[in-house]
Amino acid sequence: MALPIYASPLERVWHWTYKVICTAIFIFLIAPILIVIPLSFNAEPYFTFTEKMLSFDPEGYSLRWYDMLLTFGMQAPDGPRDWSWWRDVLANATWFDVAWNSIIIGFFSTILATGLGTLAALGLSRSEMPWRRSIMAVLISPMIVPIIITATGLFFFYSKIEIQKWGVPYLGIIMAHATLGIPFVIITVTATLSGFDHSLSRAAASLGANPRTTFFKVIMPLILPGVVSGALFAFVTSFDEVVMVLFIAGHDEQTIPRQMWNGIREQISPAILAVATILVVVSIALLATVEILRRRSEKLRGVTAG
Amino acid sequence: MVAIETSGGEGLRGGLLTTADGKPLKQALAHAQARARRKALLLVVPLLAFIVITFVVPIGQLLFRSIHNDGFSANMPQISAWFDETKAGDAPDEAAYAALVADIAAAAEARTIGVVGTRVNYELSGTRSLFTSAGRNAEDLEPPYREALLDLNAKWGDPQLWGVMRSVSSAYSANFYLAALDLARDENGDIVRAPEDRRIYGMLFMRTLWLSALITGLCLILAYPVAHLLAVLPLAKSNLLMILVLLPFWTSLLVRTTSWMVMLQEQGVINNTMVALGLVGNESRIQMMYNQAGTIIAMTHILLPFMILPLYSVMRPINPSYVRAARSLGATSWTAFRRVYLPQTLPGIGAGALLVFILSVGYYITPALVGGASGQLISNLIAYHMQDSLNWSLAAALAALLLAGVLILYWLYDRLIGIDNLKLG
């Protein structure tokens, strides 16, 4: 990006303008995400920086909104913080309840999406696969079709088959979230498999390995980074999803985004920002994991490491 | 695996190549290939079955719902039968009124008269109370029923009402699509435009398209320089900057929408900063949220990574010596960009723009939270009819129209770019 020495003055001006523009766009991208972090420590119930915060007065900052996350929905939030108080948190606090639901739904829908998706990706990346393009188009479509349409359709379908009466908790919402996660698994795993050297599995076969051994000892370790990052995508999709939950989840199947949605629409308080901050930290951790996996996968496949 | 025997008499029987067990080679190969195809297909079948159950069938249900509503026909069997026997335009006789009263009485008994009234109300507003009040008085009505009903409410003689009842006496109708396109039927059953004050769906579809196009354009303008910078920087640096693009991509949608609500509020960060800098007065704070501006700003931010990533993946492999060659041949930097660099990035522009447009056409969450009244998109109306007005068939018809649009764009995307080229992260 260095400017050549023969650049005209106009080009020099443009070069610097260009850098300023790019910086501004990067700020636009990242500022809204970072700004919620300090604001979540606000001592006042405002969504803006108070004067005390700007002068870095410790009195301007507090953990009250994080504390509120714990106590909201508790039976006896003001009691002494002993053993029974914490039991009350675990049993009754709304945010704990929805976090637990989110984790359960996210976990099982990820397992479902990753298992079925990886299997299908293995089939799709075989050269003999018939109707490859059309099948791929169908499998990717849940990502393209607006979620509100899928949610509306599932609402009609589930009320017709009365899935709530089957007695399997979370079943409907897990299947719905798995459907949304599948395209991500398919895309990441087929991308990993596209660089896969098929002579490796033939070599394993020629050395006497049966198909199962070949799969677990040769193919699986090589595509594992792709599978895991697909699984992470699927988990994030479920963890972040609110429309499906709004439409088809029972009242005891509410998730974190659903509770945030309630909070934003009804009594918006900086407690939402505390949740947002926690979620930003979680997404930083996820991003780091995916980056590490991607580099590992590139190393394994012999593509130049970034 | 096909073992071929080439030497000896057995292998070349009648000039045909055969395998060790004597089958013609061509047949054996075809057989082996069919088996490989079956195996590949078998791996995909479980997922395909799953998607059919949780995605294709529900969407079929939705399409069915958009043309099927038996709210009237299932609860009013006798009058529906009378409509079946007569033809459009027949004036209702005493038999029709008798059937109507009997049905209303039965529906009131079964507490479904509200459903019936609601169904008719979709087509002709202000008629729901007509049915419910008739339901309350049905037991006291005595023959002749025509006079009795007209005494109750003169509207029962309205030919338009009878025309509507005739049209809803069949469970299947295209009327919800007509309503979704701002059309209606007059009393003769002809299709006419809806009254001026009721034409909201066409306007909303237009607004959705216009806002999506605007957001796509804004994303392109913002993404192009950033993607270019990322593509020309050395990998180590660009990977670092890439984090700034990927972090928003991985952050929860609701978190990003919430942050924009915090930033854009009247007492929010942006307004406070501008007041502190003296750019705007304390009294004239800018309303940036709960209107179209809120929808546009927040959605541009949320969809920007979807534009940057495809552009970046196209720009990265572009050889910088092409532009240098153009410059050395006398092109100005603008000409070199316009004639040499830009055409090479067109596939990335196409992929990113289509993706962003497809995603924004169906957006629901962000407009619902920051859009106010003027920033609502068609998805918000679908949700409104699903959750508040409970006109599910109309919601299904609107969803079906939106789906048709999205599928056309998806097909276009597949033709131009190919879904296999979709990349993440």
Structure description:
- Chain B: InterPro entries: MetI-like, MetI-like_sf.
- Chain B: Keywords: Cell membrane, Membrane, Transmembrane, Transmembrane helix, Transport.
- Chain B: It is found in: Cell membrane.
- Chain B: Residues 205-413 form the ABC transmembrane type-1 domain.
- Chain B: Belongs to the binding-protein-dependent transport system permease family. CysTW subfamily.
- Chain A: Keywords: Cell inner membrane, Cell membrane, Membrane, Transmembrane, Transmembrane helix, Transport.
- The complex is a heterodimer of chains A (306) and B (425).
- Chain A has 306 residues and is mostly helical.
- Chain A has three domains: 1-37, no CATH class; 40-92, no CATH class; 93-301, MetI-like (MetI-like fold).
- Chain A is 72% helix and 0% strand.
- Chain A has helices spanning 9-39, 51-54, 64-71, 83-92, 94-124, 132-144, 147-161, 171-194, 199-206, 211-239, 243-248, 256-265, 271-301.
- Chain A is globular and about 70 Å long.
- The mean pLDDT of chain A is 87.
- With 425 residues, chain B is mostly helical.
- Chain B has three domains: 12-67, no CATH class; 77-173, no CATH class; 201-421, Orthogonal Bundle (MetI-like fold), CATH 1.10.3720.10.
- Chain B has helices at 25-67, 77-85, 94-109, 113-123, 128-137, 145-152, 159-168, 175-180, 201-232, 235-250, 253-264, 269-277, 292-315, 321-328, 333-361, 365-370, 378-387, 392-416; strands at 12-13, 16-17, 183-185, 191-193.
- In chain B, strand 3 (183-185) and strand 4 form a beta hairpin.
- In chain B, helix 2 runs antiparallel to helix 3 and helix 9 packs antiparallel against helix 10.
- The radius of gyration of chain B is 32 Å and the shape is flat.
- Chain B starts with 11 loop residues before the first strand and ends in a 9-residue tail after the last helix.
- The model of chain B is unreliable at 7-11 (pLDDT under 50).
- Chains A and B meet through helix 1, helix 5, helix 6, helix 7 and helix 8 of A and helix 1, helix 9, helix 10, helix 11 and helix 13 of B.
